[in-house]
Amino acid sequence: MPTKTIVFALVTFLHDLFTAVWIGGLITLGLTVMPSAKKILGKGPETKKLMNAIQKRHSVLVYVSLVGLVLTGLLQANRNSAFLGLLSFGNTYTAVLAVKHILVLAMIVIALYRSLALAQASTPAQEKLKATLLILNIVFGVCILLLSGFVTALSSSIPAI
Question: Where residue 46 falls among pLDDT bands split at 50, 70, 90?
């Protein structure tokens, strides 16, 4: 097997792993852990402490994944002859990729706001905003996965460099 193929397979694997950690973690947190903690512990201070501890640990994985996604994404994009540059809308491939990257940037902003500005949310309104932003990030994450499917489908019809 050629070295280029092995390297590209490893880059793709890492990109998929970082995506699974980030978006899978959000889905797990928002759709299982948070509702279960509230059901068992109620909405009191113990639930807030538990969720803050979980989110603090998850944030480390997210930040590592973000760096890994940027690096592996750049390596993947540059491999395709249809790639016209970051946030380019020059063809269907790069337009879909640009929308995907815009959603990723929105997710990063939301994640940073949730983990930094709302880390010590103390009012019910702040807690509700924090939960709403988590759900929004889950929706964006699922959209990103869908767009990734389209990018892969589009790239399979384009010769690689």
Answer: confident
Q: Report how far residue 142's alpha carbon sits from residue 149's, in angstroms, rounded to the nearest whole number.
A: 11
Measured between alpha carbons, how far is 133 from 49 in angstroms, rounded to an integer?
Answer: 19
160 assigned to some structural domain: no
- The model's pTM: 0.84
Please report the pLDDT score of residue 42 as a whole number: 85
Spell out the SS3 assignment of 8-43: HHHHHHHHHHHHHHHHHHHHHHHHHHHHHHHHHHCC
Q: Is the pLDDT of residue 156 over 80?
A: no
**How many structural domains are present in the chain?**
1
Place of tokens 């500005």: 117
Task: Determine, yes or no, domain membership for 113.
Answer: yes
How far is residue 51's CA from residue 57's CA, in Å, rounded to a whole number?
A: 10
Range of the domain at 81: 3-155
